[in-house]
């Protein structure tokens, strides 16, 4: 019998969990395709944007990660076409046949119907964007320092973060920490602690998937760091002068986008039913309706769960559990064992706000402040891949906590 | 009396040494201008290009470095004009008057009369270029892996380094180390250890400022790492297909440029005598002829020394000694003390070749191999700025030595 070939697209949390579970069977051939050569620990990407960590500390080369597994082949490339019936995919360079396909391509930012906003309000999905945000943030302070005009100084020291989800809260909170701790004594003509940081959320509360109490606590903690939170505030315009939110135009040189997640555009090419966010509505076994050999996991999938039949959120634990499930499902099918059922185990939610501040919930337990922050640190170190990365990140955080300095404060010139 | 205002352009080794020596006088006003917001430890930049270190580990934010000195102001900007008579400079945003001016702008790469070669053979002077070289090198292996055609695989796994100075030797040697150690087991369709690495030097020997013996030793050590050295080989063409060196056209996807240093283009605007490399020919006190309040140091200056009247080389110790000298000169002049004379103290020379291999000379002492490599490591850790950077780099090197892995192997997508 020919060795079954399983193609996994995407080396994020979901895809990597699937590959790691698939290699337990020695008689499989696995191809992992990614447009990047590394696994990125996305939850800490905002710390790269905020100069706390270096890209290499939260990224791990896929080839090193899987070098010991001979049955795994890694291909750098972008998938351009998927043929469900003939079971092949086409990347920018190669055509690959599969017996099973696992789609784990994640999500991207959407600017709804206003793509013209993007140049003025970069999102945070990859390393290039993170270093670009870092460049803009620290350049804004340099520009303010060079100005003598108070109005212009205010323009450069006003930061607006759009989107009150975890990423928005983390970006705004860390901006607060930077201006209230890290760069306090670095300038002669501006007072960083007077920096205006505004977090804008279209809905009625920030951290919408958390409880009312934790959301309020996050607002309070953000306030301690100088962040003003505006809810029920809809963005209607973003340009080089600032942003219109609700009825007010806020003059600001630096706007960061952390709203409007959409699934990978590849989904549209599949010719199957999608939800409003562009996610594929999958079967109970995470397969694509009508195509039992194609599975979709993580941010790319719409999978309803619980009494309320809500789709599972775009979180790392969801993607990882789905990746492991699909791997087991395929292995059992090939080896003639009983097929498993997918059961989601809620690992809780957490968001860090800034220095010693976070909110977290696990089942009925809600915590905030220093304890939640310590829990957040522990969980993120624990899930980071690679002993060296763990040690480095831990040491960076300890150093940052003790000295308030941010070592990666580099404004890297663009070409 | 008005507080004397000293303007220093460039926060490299020379400029920073000058500022650090100037702050010993409390009654001076100092402005440090740099187009970057960080001091870059240039001698280790090739390790960023070769995925051994992260940019933040060899860069230190200028503002953090000088935050405790109230008399120092830092301005991010590029100098566009210098008026020697009226004593002011114009940056892209500000006009600044000075009593003394210290020019420490360093050098850049020149492609002689062939600027069209640059896109095919990037140089290594800043972080952006280092990450671009890293991207090209590691992408070349990925492209080779995707090919089935042997000729095309060879095209992607042939690397040419132009220039046999320390940077060229370090780049070529580290490429050897990467292909012979780091990525040995990472690919399925190519054998990294068969990678061709060719180091091209126009002159009769590599490391031209070192002795015949050390140069030969470097060739031998490079050979152990698979690097072929070609001397007396002049480049006459570089394009997307490869490079013509001597009579041969070498087909290669990845060419790195480490030849042809030229002083900062700002020099041409000064209206004073320059040498062939564009450096300002300075007085014995490092001032510009006819302008006793303007000093030039480091790579930007042509300063003859020794019995042979050769200009001092573009090395960090030269720039640092000159920076400290000029600072002392200005302070003594202002405080009515005896003016010092510049005396260059030779700190020797060293170049690392790769894992456990280096060459070094200090006065009459010549060493090579493991001992020279250890000396190289020690000196570079010692001169690196910042306790955290030292610790991180030391740990990165120890980890790389023990595991042969390179953590910063990231192909960062371009915008």
From TrEMBL, chains A, B:
UniProt enzyme class:
oxidoreductase
Recorded superkingdom: Bacteria
Transmembrane feature ranges: 365-385
Q: Name one GO molecular function term.
A: NADH dehydrogenase (quinone) (non-electrogenic) activity
FAD/NAD(P)-binding domain segment(s) = 5-323
What family is it from?
Answer: Belongs to the NADH dehydrogenase family.
Q: Does the keyword Membrane apply?
A: yes
State its Enzyme Commission number(s).
Answer: 1.6.5.9
Q: What is the lineage of its organism?
A: Bacteria, Pseudomonadati, Bdellovibrionota, Bacteriovoracia, Bacteriovoracales
Q: Signal sequence span per UniProt?
A: none
Official protein name in the record: NADH:ubiquinone reductase (non-electrogenic)
> Which Gene3D superfamilies does the protein's record reference?
3.50.50.100
